[in-house]
Automatic annotation (TrEMBL):
InterPro entries: AMP-bd_C (IPR025110), AMP-bd_C_sf (IPR045851)
SUPFAM superfamilies: Acetyl-CoA synthetase-like
GO cellular component, one term: mitochondrion
Domain of life: Eukaryota
Domain AMP-binding enzyme C-terminal: 68-139
Protein name: AMP-binding enzyme C-terminal domain-containing protein
Gene Ontology molecular function terms on file: acetate-CoA ligase activity
GO BP, one annotated term: acetyl-CoA biosynthetic process
């Protein structure tokens, strides 16, 4: 899959220059509005948004894009989609991962949040690194 930055040719009023406080967002992209989102084309030919390109969290002194964690989480058979954020840690400051996960309809009752957290932790440890595994999973 090839990842690309998402740009649109006609922005609506909420995306205009002063709304973003970044006049270069539109002007530096040849008349296109840079949404700050990334995407890739699936094997079926659909465009899959991956999330903000500049949404970075700091986990155990590692800078990590939330989109890359969400992408791995979304490959779990029970997960419909995900949102990953960091939350405060008493010693490290920012340092823990929290994942919000709506489950697929057929997967409800598939497993407990603890089981799902363990499976996601293993999956993320293999694909990214152990420090990126969610410390807490909130099934929504």
């Amino acid at each position: 899959n090839i990842s690309v930055a998402v740009c649109i040719s006609q922005a609506w009023p909420a995306h205009m220059l002063t709304a973003t406080s970044d006049h270069g967002t539109v002007l530096d992209t040849a008349g296109f509005f840079f949404t700050r989102d990334g995407a890739y084309c699936t094997s079926e030919g659909h465009n899959q948004l991956t999330g903000w390109l500049d949404d970075i969290i700091n986990i155990s002194r590692h800078r990590l894009g939330t989109a890359e964690v969400e992408d791995v989480v979304n490959h779990h058979m029970a997960v419909a989609e995900s949102a990953v954020i960091s939350y405060p840690h008493e010693i490290k400051g920012e340092g823990k991962v929290l994942a919000f996960l709506p489950l697929k309809r057929l997967s409800r009752g598939y497993c407990t949040a603890d089981t799902l957290a363990a499976e996601l932790g293993e999956l993320i440890s293999k694909k990214i690194a152990k420090y990126a595994a969610p410390d807490y999973v909130q099934v929504t």
